[in-house]
């Protein structure tokens, strides 16, 4: 059995990694603007489009969304409604949080498995888009799979933290994770 301090360090490392990856995915927004804004201006003014600007923009959007999801979960930035749960006692809130996170693990875990299968297949055949310029799609599929796998791992870390009562050194206070 793992010592509580070792487990806490591991869970915090998972959360820190996911939070860092989520922050890094924010760079995709800047890169998207650097590609899409000039493309729109050129298209509107001189009817010229930057080759592959749309495809690169889609790739960056996928990075932003799917690599940001685990970080959002780790920092408790995901949307949640707490109107009814705040009426419950602490034990019921913890039980409900545990149940909903376990359901999320099942659903997100299934998506992780399916998208991983699709990423392996797409990579194997070297899937590309059909257009004037062929653009590889398989990296996008890998990014989606990685995002779902990391989100599943973060959700598992959240369940372990909730069950053991270990505090979360990453999530802001009042996030409902660990003892408060």
Describe it:
It is a multi-pass membrane protein. Residues 32-163 form the Tripartite ATP-independent periplasmic transporters DctQ component domain. Its main location: membrane. The chain has 180 residues and is an all-alpha fold. The chain has one domain (4-164). The chain is 71% helix and 0% strand. It has five helices and no strands. It has helices at residues 4-25, 27-46, 53-74, 90-125, 138-164. The longest helix is centred in the middle third of the chain and has 36 residues, at 90-125. The radius of gyration is 20 Å and the shape is elongated. It starts with a helix and ends in a 16-residue tail after the last helix.
Global geometry:
elongated
The Cα radius of gyration reads 20 Å
> Counting H and I runs of at least 4 residues, what is the number of helices?
5
Q: SSE string, helix = H, strand = E? A: HHHHH
The proportion of residues forming helix, as a percent range, comes to over 70%
Strand content: under 5%
Protein name: TRAP transporter small permease protein
Function: Part of the tripartite ATP-independent periplasmic (TRAP) transport system.
Main location: membrane
Subunit structure: The complex comprises the extracytoplasmic solute receptor protein and the two transmembrane proteins.
């Amino acid at each position: 059995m793992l010592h509580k301090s070792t487990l806490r360090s591991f869970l915090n490392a998972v959360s820190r990694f996911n939070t860092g990856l989520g922050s890094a995915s924010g760079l995709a927004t800047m890169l998207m603007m650097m590609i899409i804004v000039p493309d729109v201006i050129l298209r509107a003014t001189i009817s010229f489009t930057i080759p592959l600007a749309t495809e690169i923009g889609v790739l960056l959007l996928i990075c932003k969304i799917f690599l940001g999801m685990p970080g959002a979960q780790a920092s408790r930035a995901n949307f949640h409604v707490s109107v009814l749960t705040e009426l419950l006692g602490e034990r019921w809130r913890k039980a409900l949080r545990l149940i909903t996170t376990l359901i999320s693990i099942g659903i997100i875990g299934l998506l992780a498995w399916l998208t991983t299968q699709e990423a392996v297949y797409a990579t194997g055949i070297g899937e590309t888009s059909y257009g004037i310029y062929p653009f590889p799609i398989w990296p996008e599929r890998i990014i989606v799979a990685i995002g779902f796998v990391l989100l599943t791992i973060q959700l598992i870390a959240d369940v372990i933290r909730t069950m053991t009562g270990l505090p979360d050194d990453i999530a802001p206070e009042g996030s409902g994770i660990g003892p408060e």
